[in-house]
SIS domain-containing protein
Amino acid sequence: MAVSLLQRILQDMGEMGAAEQRIGAFVNSSPGEVIHMSMAKLAERCSVSDPTIMRFCRRFGFDGYQDFKLHLAQSLVPSAPFAYEQIVSSDSVENIVRKTCRNSLNAIQRALEDLVPKQIEAAAQLLRGATWIGIYASGISEITAIDAEHKFQRLGMRCAAVIGRQKQWMHAESSRPNEVALIFSQSGHTKQMVELAIAARSGGARVVSVTAAESPLARVTDVLVAVLPYDRTELMTPLASRLNHHLVINMLVTAIAVSSGSEFPDQLPALDSWLTDKI
C-alpha cells in the first residue's frame, strides 16, 4: 500500500534533529497552509534556517522546497489505494479536524474506485422484490442496520433492523421464501453473521451481504456488495471504515427508487408524507 508524504514525515520524525522535527510537526499539523508559504515564511514560523528546510526536503528525495510543496499538495488530494492516517495523542485539534476529514474523503474516493455498480443493481433488484427484509449486524455496524431500516421503510418497504443475538436467531431460523436477509459486516469473518446467513438460506430466504469479498460471509451469500475492508478492523473501527457502508445504503435506496419510477429518487422527503414539526 502506498504511503503518503505526511505519513513518511511522521515515520521519520524520530530520526530528525530538533529543528527538522519542528518543520515536520508544522507540516503535519498545517499542510494546507504550508503549500502556500514561501520558504522564508516557513523558516520564520518554525524558527529554523533556509538550509535546514532544504535539508528537510532532501531527506524525502526532493530537489528543493518547491518540489516538496508540489508533492505535498498532491498528497492532499484523496486517491486510491486508501491510506488511513491514524490520530495520535500528540495531535492538535486542528490536526484532528484535518485527519478526520481527509480519512473520510479518502474512504469515499476508495468507494468510487472499488464498488461494482452491477452488484448494487443486483442487490437493489432482490431487495425490491422481497416481501420482508431482515437487516442484520453486530457491534458498531448496528448503527448501519438502523440507518438502512429507516431509509427502506420510508420507501414503503417492509423491513426491520434485527438487533441482539437471540432475536436475530429467532428471525433467521423462521425465514421463508421471498424474504431477504440483508447483512452488514466489515470483515465478513464474524461467526454470528455467517451462521445467520446460513440459517436464513436454509429457510428459503435469499441473502444480500455488504462485506469483504472472498470472506466467509461472502461465500454463503446470494448477492454480494463487496466493500474492501480496512486495516485492523478487529482492533479499531474508525469513522472511515463505516462510511462506505452508509454510502451503499444510499445507493441501494436510490436504485430502488429509480426502478420504482420515483420522480425524485435521491430525495427521501419527496417519497413519503412524513412531516416533522418545526419551531
Summary: The domain at 5-111 is CATH 1.10.10.10 (Arc Repressor Mutant, subunit A).
